[in-house]
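Input record (one chain):
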Amino acid sequence: MNFAMQAVWAIGLIAAAFALSSWQKLGLEGSLILAAGRAVIQLAVVGYVLAVVFAPPQSPILVLFVLGVLVMVSAIVTRNRISQKLPLPGVAGALLITTLVTVAYVQWIVVQPLVWYEPRFLIALGAIVLSQAMNAATIAGERFFSALKSNTLEIETRLSLGATPAQAIEQYRKDAIRAGVLPVINAMSIVGLATIPEIVSGQLLGGAEPIQAIVFQVVILFMITFASLLVSVLVTSGIWRKFFNAQAQLIRW
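The corresponding structure, as predicted from the sequence alone:
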C-alpha cells in the first residue's frame, strides 16, 4: 500500500473520533473536522516546501530561509501566548539564540554532517529545538509575567528596602525557569519505562535499527533539555527588564 492510500485510510480514525464525539454529545465535531483539515493542508504545504529544499542542488540560503520562517512563526506564537505587550524582537531573539547555540553544538560535535547546511539535519534539528523551546518559553514567560503583575506590592517593598530590580524579582524568575524546564525533566525521568518517544516510534516505523533509534532519542532529549533551560533564562531575563524603567522603578502593566 502506498503512502497516499495509507493517509486516506487514516481518515477513518478521524471519522471514528467524529462519531464518538457525536454519540457522547461532546460538541467537538466541528473542531475535529476543522483541526484535521488544517493539519492536512498545512502538512501538505510543508511537505512540498521541504521537497524543494531537499532536492539537489541544496541551497544554504533556502535552508536558512526556512529556519528563519520557523523562528519568526514560533516567536509570534510564543509572544501572543505570554502577552502581546511584549516586544516581538526580544522573543524572536531568545528563540534564535537558543536554536543557533543548540543546533550548532549538535551539528558540529555530535552529528558532524558532510556539509553544515544539510537540510535533513539542520531543518529537522532546528524544528525540534524550536518546538520545545516555544513550549518552555511560553510556560516560563506566562508564569513570570503573571507573578510580576500580581506581586507588585511585594516587589516595590523590596525595592524600597534597597534591593536592586534583579534581586527584587529573583525568586519569581527562578520559579518561572523551573516551571519551563520541569516538563522536560519529568519526561526524561519516565522515558523508556512508561512511554516510548514518538521519534523512536517513527524511526522504527521507518525501518531504523532499535539501538540507532534510541541513540538519536538520547541526543534529542539532551538537546531539548538544554534548549528549554536556555530559552527560559533568556525570555525571563528579557521580561523583567521591561518591568523597570531607567530609575529602577517598577512599571505597572
